[in-house]
Amino acid sequence: xxxxxxxxxxxxxxxxxxxxxxxxxxxxxxxxxxxxxxxxxxxxxxxxxxxxxxxxxxxxxxxxxxxxxxxxxxxxxxxxxxxxxxxxxxxxxxxxxxxxxxxxxxxxxxxxxxxxxxxxxxxxxxxxxxxxxxxxxxxxxxxxxxxxxxxxxxxxxxxxxxxxxxxxxxxxxxxxxxxxxxxxxxxxxxxxxxxxxxxxxxxxxxxxxxxxxxxxxxxxxxxxxxxxxxxxxxxxxxxxxxxxxxxxxxxxxxxxxxxxxxxxxxxxxxxxxxxxxxxxxxxxxxxxxxxxxxxxxxxxxxxxxxxxxxxxxxxxxxxxxxxxxxxxxxxxxxxxxxxxxxxxxxxxxxxxxxxxxxxxxxxxxxxxxxxxxxxxxxxxxxxxxxxxxxxxxxxxxxxxxxxxxxxxxxxxxxxxxxxxxxxxxxxxxxxxxxxxxxxxxxxxxxxxxxxxxxxxxxxxxxxxxxxxxxxxxxxxxxxxxxxxxxxxxxx
Length: 491
What we know:
Layout: H1 3-24, H2 29-45, H3 47-58, H4 62-85, E1 92-94, E2 107-113, E3 117-120, H5 134-142, E4 146-149, H6 155-172, E5 179-182, H7 187-195, E6 201-205, H8 208-219, E7 227-230, E8 237-239, H9 241-260, E9 272-276, H10 279-294, H11 303-317, E10 323-327, E11 340-345, H12 346-351, E12 363-369, H13 372-380, E13 385-391, H14 394-399, H15 403-410, E14 411-416, E15 455-461, E16 482-484, E17 487-489
Parallel strand pairs: 1-16, 3-4, 3-6, 4-5, 6-7, 8-9, 8-13, 9-12, 11-12, 13-14
Antiparallel strand pairs: 1-2, 2-15, 10-11, 16-17
Helix pairs in contact: 1-7, 2-4, 2-6, 3-4, 3-6, 4-5, 9-10
């Protein structure tokens, strides 16, 4: 397809999305919920055929994909439940006080959808962060039509999921173009999607370069729009002395598993470990080296990720003062990664920004510090992260209490005595963090609060009751929780 044809296709697609937005605003939350549930049902009805297609395109094992598929359908139903309950619109009512000087008007506020949302599918999650993943589910729940740009790494999987969504549109009577699927993979088509006048917001999960490019495209528009890019993280883990002294072996085995889980192809992979030199750390590293050597390499998602992994890992290992601690002793075959762990002294790490960058794959760097002050300096030198983890005993946390106030400045999710890999889908989850982990740290990409990315507040002043949205009418016909004259109530 030529550039002009690609741009014309995008123009037609976005015009249809704008038309769908007008109609979709009139659809009740109850019917939107039925729509989301129908998508989940249709995905499940595809059964093993969908899993087999995804496995063939991504090299991911069926067990992993079954879990991700279940998470995706659960997420769709979670948003359906949110819609039925209804309080997500954050309705607030401040009734008039005519006798006040000056007179206080009647003011009522709720969240309103932004408009058509463009979602860029992620390569490492063919279900959960792609065609019917969290961005799509939350945007549809918010009342926004969605245009998905399929990822070329799992195009046929994306086509199958798009078919499940289209079938749900038909069976639930949704506007025909409330969801559209773009398979054009050119650079120009992505830019055109972001910069089209009808596009109201963008969702992206992937690399820093890709997410930042989309963000910049949006900023160049006549009317800039929000771009919610999740752009990766090295997810620093702080190991404190007492827990290393007591639990070196179990910690080493736990983290060898986390570093190499899914061949490290998670945005929450623990790519950096920080600890104070000592016998506990020595034992931890000794056992970690043994565990990494025993890991059997597996294929990575696609050739681009495979190539980038080795290039970035090799570059890091060639930096001054970086020592290879351990690698898998199994020779990797075509498209397979090579699980590796390296170490470096804190003084060198602090002086070398390249070592702060993500190596996407089964790789982690251990930064060895001479004392607690140096450990804090290393931790605070890092850019924004999705997660940071504190591994310690009660004694550790008492001895290093200042860490607890630093952690929220670094990441959106703070993990205690666990691993960052694995993101629970629930209302309290935060999957986001300070730049460059995300382009807007105020929002999460996981959980029902993800819907907040696609809405804006609108208030109605002295509006006749019969003209108000149901969520704001005096009788509260939806029966939702509202803030009425500074008091939460359903009445």
